[in-house]
Design a protein that fits this description.
Elements (H helix, E strand, L loop, with lengths): L2 H7 E4 L4 E6 L2 E5 L4 E5 L1 H14 L3 E2 H12 L3 H13 L3 E3 L7 H9 L6 H7 L1 E7 L6 H5 L5 E7 L5 H12 L4 E5 L6 H12 L4 E7 L2 E8 L7 H8 L5 H13 L12 H19 L9 E6 L5 E5 L34
The protein binds zinc ion (ZN).
Zinc ion binds next to helix 10.
């Protein structure tokens, strides 16, 4: 049997399960976020026999015969109950090849065999962030078995060499994390443009005063970009705010902007949420920040997701291509006045 087939046929109880035998016709399997209840004497006996045969993990072919014998049921019924246990997220597929809190968590939430270790090994992450690790992000990512190359940007430094180093690092990477550059800064715009020019997706995140944001996750040629988000945020801005925005860009052109004031603990919290999201996109799990961002405000105690749709004519992600004309367009010769008759 090949390795993927082995993973598909190896059964184990999902981490976090507690099995409660309520009575001879009811058994409950309870997890942190959900509880599954099986009823009727036949189903209860079958489920308990399957759980006993699975133990700490077993091949499906080794589970069916002993469970059928113990519960005195047809093997087809046991097969059906195994499918029910898989469908209701009580059993998981795959061997726990690597252990640790992150692998336990993924075995709990994942619907596929535990291939987290493979996904982590394949991911190559580049993280661009201000020098000094504000928010302790490098610290948070350490120890995840995720390869992260960190590019630091010291406030006040010229951006050109940093963009050059970033471009080089991106050649061998699968995802870029851009942390704590003010979204409106010319430097963030340069990073956005660099990512859009290639194929590596980029997750933006930052803490700006009382607001923390995770996202957008920009997939080149696919989703709205950071400039689309900036333009959307400015939609309702008045003239004075637009002028201040332009002044900010002028004053911070070609240099790494200063980090804005932020609560030292709030920034750690948002950095942690950014790290969770960066890990999710690095291992290819569905992302809530693709085509949007999640905003956290200090003092509000709530997170809100905002969608960002592409801005028609965004000069970052919609390069001005030649205007298309219909195939049967007529282009009459211009009439030149004053030409010799
Ligand atoms: Zn755009």
């Amino acid at each position: 049997m090949s390795e993927p087939e082995q993973r598909q046929s190896h059964l184990r109880l999902r981490p976090g399960a507690a099995v409660y035998e309520i009575s001879s016709d009811e058994v409950q399997i309870s997890f942190p976020n959900y509880t599954v209840t099986f009823t009727s004497p036949v189903v209860t006996a079958g489920v308990l026999a399957i759980l006993a045969a699975v133990g700490s993990g077993a091949e499906r072919s080794e589970v069916v015969p002993p469970a059928a014998a113990a519960a005195d049921l047809d093997p087809a019924v046991i097969e059906y109950l195994i499918e029910s246990l898989l469908g209701s997220s009580c059993l998981a597929l795959g061997r726990p090849e690597v252990t640790g809190p992150l692998h336990e968590f993924h075995a709990y939430v994942s619907d596929s065999p535990d291939d987290l270790a493979d996904r982590l090994a394949a991911a190559r992450c580049v993280l661009l962030q201000p020098a000094g690790d504000p928010g302790g992000l490098a610290d948070a990512l350490r120890g995840l078995d995720l390869r992260v190359d960190i590019v630091e940007a010291a406030p006040g430094a010229a951006t050109a060499p940093i963009i050059g180093a970033l471009a080089e690092a991106l050649e061998s990477s699968t995802v870029l994390g851009c942390w704590n550059l003010p979204y409106r800064s010319p430097f963030a715009r340069q990073v956005n443009e660099l990512a859009l020019a290639g194929t590596v997706p980029v997750l933006f995140g930052s803490c700006e005063g009382v607001v923390g944001r995770v996202g957008p996750f920009v997939i080149p040629q696919n989703t709205a970009c950071l400039e689309c988000l900036n333009q959307r945020l400015l939609t309702h801005a008045g003239g004075p705010e637009l002028r201040a925005y332009q002044q900010y860009r002028l004053h911070n052109d070609e240099v790494v902007p200063p980090v804005w004031p932020m609560h030292p603990l709030f920034v750690r919290a948002v950095a942690g949420l950014f790290a969770v999201e960066l890990l999710e996109v690095a291992i290819g799990r569905p992302s809530v920040t693709s085509g949007g961002f999640v905003e956290y405000r200090i003092g509000d105690g709530a997170a809100e997701r905002h969608s960002v749709v592409r801005v028609p004519g965004c000069n970052a992600c919609r390069p001005q291509s030649p205007r298309r004309v219909a195939w049967d367009v007529r282009l009459p010769a211009p009439a030149v006045k004053g030409a010799a008759e």
